[in-house]
Amino acid sequence: MQDDITKLMISCIPRLRRYARALVGDRTDADDLVQDTMERGWGKLSSWRSGSDMRAWLFGIMHNLHIDQVRKPTLHTVDLGDDTPVPVVHATQTHRLEIHDMQSALETLPAELREVLLLVALEEMTYEEVAATLRIPAGTVMSRLSRARERLRAHMEQRTTISPLKVVK
Predict the structure, then answer these.
(1) Quick one: which of 70, 12, 71 has its CA closest to 37?
(2) Model's pTM, two decimal places?
């Protein structure tokens, strides 16, 4: 039984890493977040209900850890030495530039909008799964997702104003 639970937790790591990388933007910080999530999950394994969705449970732990880290004041530094390689970006690599633009656009979103967008679009979670993970109503998930998409669209189209909401009767 314990081996099955361990395998189930380990199978969630790739998706946790992908979400963490999109959430925090830095590979090292993302790996630290995943490690903290797995450590917390292992320590609190007794609170996981057998038969429930392990992935959603771990994503909830990751969400809470991330919120705690955002609230905690930190100073991020990068050690640069003389032998630190400088990345080369070629002008013809439009795909990388588009990804960079999208990452920059994601970083402009407030955390609550970015989290919902990443869970739905990147992790392919249903609205109900996102609602359970973030402990918010499904209607709030849909509202935040809509606002996040519109803000991304406006940013990518370089519009300064976001189109107003339309009243549907």
Answers:
(1) 12
(2) 0.54
